[in-house]
Amino acid sequence: MSLREQLLKLLKNGDLDLPSDPGDDTPLISEGLVDSLGLFNLALWIETQIGTPIDLTSIDPSGEWDTIADILAFVEKYRK
Amino acid sequence: MSDGYAIVRYTPEHKNDVVDLQKFLWSPRSDLNRSYLEWKYERNPYLEGPLIYLALCGGRVVGMRGMLGAKWEAGTPPETFPGICTEDSAIHPDHRGRRISSKIMKTFFEELAARGHRYLYSLTASPVTFMGSLAMGWKNVGPFGLEAFRSKRAERFRLLRKRMGETRVLWKFADRLPGRRWATRRTPLHELRDCPAICRQTDRFRVVLDKSPRPEEMADLVARMEYDGRIRHVRDREYLSWRFLNPQHRYLFLYWEEKGLEGYLVLQEYVSEFRPPAQVNIVDWEGTSREVRAGLLHEALGLCPFPDLNIWTAPLSEESKSLVEDAGFRPVHDPAAGTKDIPPSLLVRSLEAGVPATEWALDGRRMLDMANWDVRMIYSMNG
Known about the structure:
The structure holds two protein chains of two kinds. By secondary structure, chain A is an all-alpha fold. Chain A has a single domain (3-12, 25-78), classed as ACP-like (Non-ribosomal Peptide Synthetase Peptidyl Carrier Protein, Chain A, Orthogonal Bundle), CATH 1.10.1200. Chain A is built from four helices and no strands. Chain A has helices spanning 3-13, 36-50, 61-64, 68-78. Chain A is globular, with a radius of gyration of 12 Å. The mean pLDDT of chain A is 90. Chain B folds into two domains: 6-144 and 342-379, 3-Layer(aba) Sandwich (Aminopeptidase); 146-331, Gcn5-related N-acetyltransferase (GNAT) (Aminopeptidase), CATH 3.40.630.30. Chain B has ten helices and 18 strands. In chain B, a hairpin with a 4-residue loop joins strand 8 (197-201) and strand 9. In chain B, helix 1 (15-21) packs across helix 2 (30-42), helix 7 packs across helix 8 and helix 9 packs parallel to helix 10 (318-327). The longest helix of chain B has 15 residues, at 100-114. Chain B starts with 5 loop residues before the first strand and ends in a 17-residue tail after the last strand. In chain B, 40% of the residues are buried. The mean pLDDT of chain B is 91. Classes of the chains: A mainly alpha, B alpha+beta. Chain A binds chain B through residues 14-17, 29-30, 32-40, 43-44, 47, 52-57, 59-62, and chain B through 96-99, 101-103, 127-137, 140, 142, 336-340, 342, 345.
């Protein structure tokens, strides 16, 4: 399963109002499509992917993880 | 309300519904929830009436968020600033994942900005709310430095229970350990002894244990003590008279008396079945000298073998931090653990558009620097 497919599976796992196939540039966080619990699970998933804890004092989820493309780029950038 | 939810301002006719909804967050008891709602929102000294928004679905209350009035001070001489703290996010389980929280918060942002408020504060965010808040423009100032003193017996029990919980077959029996009743006993403070009582007495001073606050004397002491100008909540008679009436908590006070009050230490435990039963917090601690502060801490630790005694160390002076460390308190959270172990933290959000977070300030003190805050557990509804 590709990283994108894993991410989509995670996002659809929650009871969220997501489109059936959100595009890579659909704003997920700034538009409120991912709720607090979904975001918490997303953060855990990202930490697993990059293999290191996120710095909670500097992270800006709506700026850095707003779309599927943003999230995948973040993972690629920080993956160890 | 195209999605079926209407966001409305709380009115007294919603009280019963809110009391019921809060059985998911505050406590399973209606009487306790009602008295908490009335104390916290109707009698808050800094707002005229409850500032609560509700989500209604088919006329039923299915979500809420409350805002608590506060009064910060900063600078020397101190200047006061009205503050609003976010509280009590509750969504009925059947309606979660419907963006209700963010809709309520957006309504709050607009209303509070229109009223002229510049900032919002959060001192009680759970790990999930913490992440959701960051996504809505909040900034993490930093952790409160939660540290705990745990008796050796409690630590052994906790470790054993954890190991059993992680082991196949044994996990089923982890809750049946013989020490469970002791280690999780409720209200350890109120099993202590009759109050008021004199804990220690010399020719020069005495330490008194009491269940009643002394708002006037405590406020006088705070006013007498040197103030370094960090951002903190005002602790005057009005605030202290209201603050210790929280029906969800029980408080116990240690007073250091000489000719007048020279110090106090406030212990707190939870009443609600939803909160840790054996946890006791030091929610405020003042003393005019190292001897007074050390003596009060020593008496607190000697009252009973608290299974779990907690304090926020971020606001403490280096001297008080060393007292806490020498007494055996240790950090509860690993600050570098990331999302797996989010510590209790201070969050701030600006209500003004276009102001960079680096410029958020009270009395010229940058808000995103924890060193500019004297933030004690008593300012939070966790304490």
